[in-house]
Specification:
Blueprint lengths: L1 H5 L16 H12 L9 E5 L6 E7 L8 E8 L8 H15 L4 E7 L3 H9 L3 E5 L3 E7 L4
Parallel strand pairs: 3-4
Antiparallel strand pairs: 1-2, 2-3, 4-6, 5-6
Length: 145
Amino acid sequence: MARRIVVRDERPGDDWHPEYPFADELDPLRALAAETAADPEFTMYLVRRRSDGLAIGGFGFFDAPDDKGTVEFGYGLVPSARGAGLASEAVQLGLQHAATRGALIALADTELGNTPSQRVLEKNGLIEIKRDQSHVYYRRDLVVR
């Protein structure tokens, strides 16, 4: 499906929001489409709104956990879907998914001025570990619940 998203080959049942995918997701989606041995667990996922089934964003892992069990993730929603708790729910589900598949530590970052995203991460138990002139970096130890 990654290839179809990149070339916008929408088929019945895909139900992608007109603003999806985001420009910054196209390169990872292209890489995923070209990958022949992609990890089926630590990959990119569509975020769908329950009320109408519309694909309104994405959640993705940058790679499988490293040798220390660390996994990095990112997410995004179309502007009209923000503020309804969907990003928080997507992050919560993604972290549970990672923990049950062996990840021990989760990392994420946001742009310095993106306070809504920072609230999403903090709501999900991530703690700020550093910041620079452009980004805030977060970490959370994962436990299987």
